[in-house]
Amino acid sequence: MRRDWHPAPRASQGLYEPSLERDACGVGFVADVRGEASHEIIRKGLQILVHLAHRGACGCDPETGDGAGIMIQIPHAYLAGECARLGFDLPGPGAYGVGMLFLPRRKDSRLVVEGHLERVAHQEGLAVLGWREVPVNSAALGWLARASQPFIEQVFLRGPQGMGQEELERKLYVVMRRMENEIRDSEIPDKEDFYIPSMSTRTVVYKGLLLAPQIEQFYLDLAAPGLSSALALVHQRFSTNTIPTWPLAHPYRLIAHNGEINTLRGNVNWMNARESVLKSPAFGEDLRKLFPVVTPGLSDSASLDNVVQLLYLAGRSLPHVMAMLIPEAWDHDPTMPDEERAFYEYHASLMEPWDGPAAIAFTDGELIGATLDRNGLRPARYLVTHDGLLIMASEAGVLPVEPENVKEKGRLQPGKMLLADLREGRIVPDEEIKAQLARRRPYGQWLKENQVRLEDLPAPPRWHSTDFSNLLDRQRAFGYTDEELRSILAPMALHGDDPVGSMGVDTPLACLSDKPQLLFNYFKQLFAQVTNPPIDPIREEMVMSLASYIGVERNILEETPQHCHTLKLAQPILTNYDLEKLRRVSQGDFLATTLMMLFPAGGGQTELRQALEALCRRASWAIRSGYSLLILSDRAIDENFAPIPSLLALSAVHNHLVRERTRTQVALIVESGEPREVHHFCLLLGYGAS
Known about the structure:
The protein has 690 residues and is α+β, with helices and mostly antiparallel strands. It has 2 domains: 25-447, Aminohydrolase, N-terminal nucleophile (Ntn) domain (Glutamine Phosphoribosylpyrophosphate, subunit 1, domain 1, 4-Layer Sandwich), CATH 3.60.20.10; 451-686, TIM Barrel (Alpha-Beta Barrel). A 7-stranded antiparallel β-sheet has the order 7-2-8-1-13-12-14, covered by helices on one side. A 5-stranded antiparallel β-sheet has the order 9-10-11-15-16. α3 crosses α5 (165-184), α10 packs across α11 and α16 crosses α17 (646-659).
């Protein structure tokens, strides 16, 4: 049984669903701010990791952990000596890249993958200098980790004469993405063992299905005195809702993460939809080889790392990328400078945040830092010494430091960033980071000239007021019950009381009911099961915002004034008056049309399918005709036409446009009498409503 056990089912299996991968862990780093590499930094990094071991976990095998790892700078002198013994020489630092590879254990499969990588590298203009089997001690592992242990190897790649380090870094990324996509789609036996922990000219990652004390015993390189680095980023994993695997151990290529990305599914779906409009001068024609940007089946942390890597290699600095994806609370902060607020609002027009409790450490081998989510729901402590060390971890006391050597210490604040620039040999304050980012472009001027606010649109000449004459007929058409009217709608209408519910809903499943059910009722809320404290949107108003930005989605790999030509809504729920403003808008890119989501009242499954297909065709026609706001409406119901369930109609149009690669060209707005609970509105937003 042990020989057959494999901890990494990447497809849905029984109750396991890979899209629900989450983890909560211990993260930390140590860096010599002066940029002086030494083996002592690696020793201190491993010591931090051991002191964070209690933040990790193990399963039924007490010697198999959920995952641990360390990222260091490429130790050029050490690797040059190792490669010379293997019969090939390395060029100078920055002129070659190191790929750390997890390969199939079967030799025939491994040779096929190696040959595939050499072919891809050659096609991308890179030369394979040689291969090195990474020395490991499998006896240090638990039996579960040994059962799934991949073959671990390093490959050394060099660019053609005249290729700079930045261009080589991008080419290595292209090779890595091509390998991931092509091996995943291949018929190679044991292809699930293949993974690339890192492929870079600056950093290398040692990680695996390990407990913290095992990593140095397993990876023999880490104990070698000649192995040196000016930084060490470490991570001990606690897989909250996941199955631990070798690839899902941290660090990833640029980040290590403690927390959860609660908006993951929406983030990934929108990233997939945006691929049709992505362009990059840095990548040119290579950009199409990188899709999908987010590799299917990864955890929330790994998916975030995929996006960070693309945005970073396309030209943004690492602090810029982190501030863009995990912004601080800016909308209601009266103390924030106007330039900084404009920076965040501009980027809110580009893409939605990756939101959730998160402490994220990041490095590209030259910059190293950490940031917290806007709520500050994960711990991060830091300490600076007089002899030039910067230490950050999920808790204090991870390294022994004499009191007289402490220069500064503190707690990373919500939304703030800790950063050390090893090239300049200094720690960069959060205020300086944000000020530099805010001055990159005239974001405030661009917003003033291009952003459209709902309240500034002209008043409509008429709008739909409440019609009580056919209210009962409409309530019946949309399936309202007496209980909903009495318990949900009446308290909200009379007193503004939102009904209070429980996450542990134990009502019968809709699929088991003998009564007709709304499509909404077939869905259940996803929530963080372990680690999220309750949040009060009234008392914690400063970190909460309902503002929405709708309009044409543009290329997020560039920044232009047109990127903030969006329509800003104070909240996603519109009144009839607001909707009529949008229905009549004709300003810049904004032009609206209404598409009816109805089908014959006497029809059945066939008529419903035909109506959905016709609705999708009309949406495609509207885009070709230049409309950018599509209002999906069931207002025209009567004795002849019944409403298509709003969630079904919306998701059908949304996914149809994604398949046609035109979803980013329009905003979808739902006008319906069907949704009446918070759960319903959340589903509409989650399945495509703008």
